[in-house]
């Protein structure tokens, strides 16, 4: 696949990592060229250098979206990471595979470390871990007043994702209230992690096992529609390819719906405590059509302000562990674009965690579901 790269440079225009660092050796084009070199002799490349370059990718997939040759550089990086496992990858795999037992305890432990004792390099990461439990969250100011009848009586599964399942239960409860108001019956389904972050981190066997489990849950429920309220989870689910056949893969992709699209025709009342301006962060994995932004724009009108959507929050999965200083460069550019409104909302659980941990003093960050009371 790396041989398909024609070095046109389209990826250079959209890569947040290149934009933040100015280092073209970190660009998607350079990584594709690296993999091409490794497919040949590659003997002159030191393993440590290969592993280091493999760790420096946000996994945002903006490069693939604009590639005329459909070169999947994040996929190539995942394969490089799989071929060069290290302690950071093991830690990432353990953290995601055991979210139910580790996340709450890890958040509590991180919160006990005084800020003055947090290593400068990992300070933002520890703050992000401490904030996993969420605290009081954003103050709600939207109340659904009239639900459309278009979905009444329908049966759906709800894919909550790891964050809502293990540490942000109020997101899950808000989603369930909306679906109940629409008259939708939420079917029981024991979904696991979407597996996207595991795959991006090079934990390919674990990601495949997660996909296999989630597809089995969907089949057992009768292959209904699946509502999702995390943009990254949705992108991960849409990327599943291990179906029984192409027809089932097509049905699976059609079944994955953003929750914001399901509720988009609901009428809301805006309370007096609503801020005059809210900022919106476009998650990388939401794509150009970002349905959450479309939904919120229809509800909030001119109250909602959003930058161009070019900037990444800087979370980057394994990159956050492997090169926190690079992640911070990306994050600073994101906040330069967002600065202004005192409330920032988004539709991705990883973006919420990253932005909440790095927000300027006096700025609150949350998932858009927190706005609904």
From TrEMBL:
Q: Does the keyword Magnesium apply?
A: no
Q: Where is the 4Fe-4S ferredoxin-type domain?
A: 1-26
Identify one Pfam family in the record.
CCG
Ordered alphabetically, the record's keywords are: 4Fe-4S, Iron, Iron-sulfur, Metal-binding, Repeat
Q: What is this organism's lineage?
A: Bacteria, Pseudomonadati, Thermodesulfobacteriota, Desulfovibrionia, Desulfovibrionales
Domain of life assignment: Bacteria
Q: What is this protein called?
A: 4Fe-4S dicluster domain-containing protein
Which Gene Ontology molecular-function terms are recorded?
Answer: 4 iron, 4 sulfur cluster binding; metal ion binding; oxidoreductase activity
């Amino acid at each position: 696949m790396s041989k398909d790269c024609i070095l046109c440079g389209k990826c250079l225009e959209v890569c947040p990592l290149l934009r933040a660092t100015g280092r073209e050796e970190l660009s998607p084009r350079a990584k594709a060229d690296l993999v091409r070199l490794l497919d040949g002799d590659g003997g002159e490349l030191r393993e440590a250098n290969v592993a280091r370059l493999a760790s420096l990718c946000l996994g945002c997939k903006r490069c693939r979206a604009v590639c005329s040759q459909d070169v999947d550089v994040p996929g190539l990086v995942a394969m490089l990471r799989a071929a060069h496992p290290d302690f950071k990858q093991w830690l990432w795999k353990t953290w995601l595979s055991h979210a139910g037992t580790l996340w709450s305890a890890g958040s509590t432990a991180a919160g006990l470390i005084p800020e003055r004792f947090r290593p400068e390099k990992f300070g933002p990461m520890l703050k992000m871990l401490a904030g996993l439990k969420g605290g009081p969250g954003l103050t709600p100011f939207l109340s659904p007043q009239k639900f459309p009848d278009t979905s009444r009586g329908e049966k759906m599964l709800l894919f909550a994702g790891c964050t809502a399942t293990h540490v942000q239960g109020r997101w899950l409860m808000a989603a369930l209230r909306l679906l109940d108001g629409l008259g939708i019956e939420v079917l029981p389904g024991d979904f696991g992690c979407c597996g996207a972050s595991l795959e991006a981190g090079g934990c390919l066997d674990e990601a495949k096992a997660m996909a296999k489990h989630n597809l089995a849950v969907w089949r057992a429920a009768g292959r209904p529609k699946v509502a999702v309220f995390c943009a990254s989870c949705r992108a991960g689910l849409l990327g599943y390819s291990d179906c029984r056949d192409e027809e089932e893969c097509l049905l699976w992709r059609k079944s994955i719906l953003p929750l914001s699209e399901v509720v988009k025709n609901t009428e809301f009342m805006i309370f007096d405590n609503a801020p005059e301006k809210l900022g919106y962060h476009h998650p990388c994995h939401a794509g150009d059509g970002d349905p959450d932004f479309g939904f919120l724009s229809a509800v909030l009108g001119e109250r909602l302000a959003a930058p161009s959507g070019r900037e990444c929050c800087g979370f980057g999965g394994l990159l956050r562990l492997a090169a926190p200083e690079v992640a911070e460069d990306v994050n600073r550019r994101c906040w330069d674009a967002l600065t202004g409104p005192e409330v920032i909302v988004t539709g991705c659980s990883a973006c919420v965690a990253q932005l909440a941990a790095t927000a300027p003093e006096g700025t609150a960050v949350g998932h858009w579901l927190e706005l609904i009371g």
